[in-house]
Amino acid sequence: MVHIDEEALRSSLQRLREAAFDADVVAVLKRTVNAVNDVFAYSGAGIMFITESGHLAYVAASDEDGRQLEEAQAAAGQGPCYDSYVYAREIVTSDLRTDDRWPALTTQLPAQVRAVAGIPLLLSGSPVGTLNVYYDQPAEWDDSDIQALRGYSGLIAEILATALAAQDRGTVAEQLQYALDYRVVIERAIGYLMGAHGLAATTAFNLLRKQARDSRRRVADVAAEVLGGSTGPDADQIRDRHSPGRALSEAT
Prior knowledge:
Blueprint: H1 6-19, H2 25-40, E1 44-50, E2 56-61, H3 64-76, H4 80-87, E3 91-93, E4 116-123, E5 126-134, H5 143-165, H6 171-197, H7 201-215, H8 219-227, H9 235-241
Antiparallel strand pairs: 1-2, 1-5, 3-4, 4-5
Helix pairs in contact: 1-2, 1-5, 2-5, 6-7, 6-8, 7-8
């Protein structure tokens, strides 16, 4: 059953678009996540950006549970929003507490988070982060939800593109530029590890992140090292993380 009001969606996006450049980027992003809830009655929403270390860090959240959901995924290094970023597509779960794709996340969730949807934020065709929404009870996501969330993610991309083009570029713009500049080399390193060791994409990405963290370098530098024939993640790490049943599922 379609339950998203298309006219409400268009009206909300238009109001946000008209006001988008009257405030700083972070303020507009906060306004956007609040609008998602106000118009469509999700329980909460948030936005996460990728950092140099390969972590998704929250930028804006509509409520405390939404903030805790984003922080829990960042701490666990897995979740629907991480998968949405890595695979550059929508990832949904009808009940995060009973979903076995992200076992390390379950114990860290706030009590009010159940159904979750992650939508990639794309700039120049590459993901730089995710838009995330949740319900406080189990729920199925239909096509109208996904289309509405794509509309908001497209608006966010417009705002971010303007931030990148501005001459007075702040921290958010610098973070976005890094994500764009190095996404290709990270994707290639992920593909190499998948092909060479039979890993799922999220497992390969987490190996790059761990190596970057352990060596205190950027994940893009580790990715370039892997592609250049240097060590990258070592064989022991690969064996430990690729034991039966440990690879993350790619299915939505």
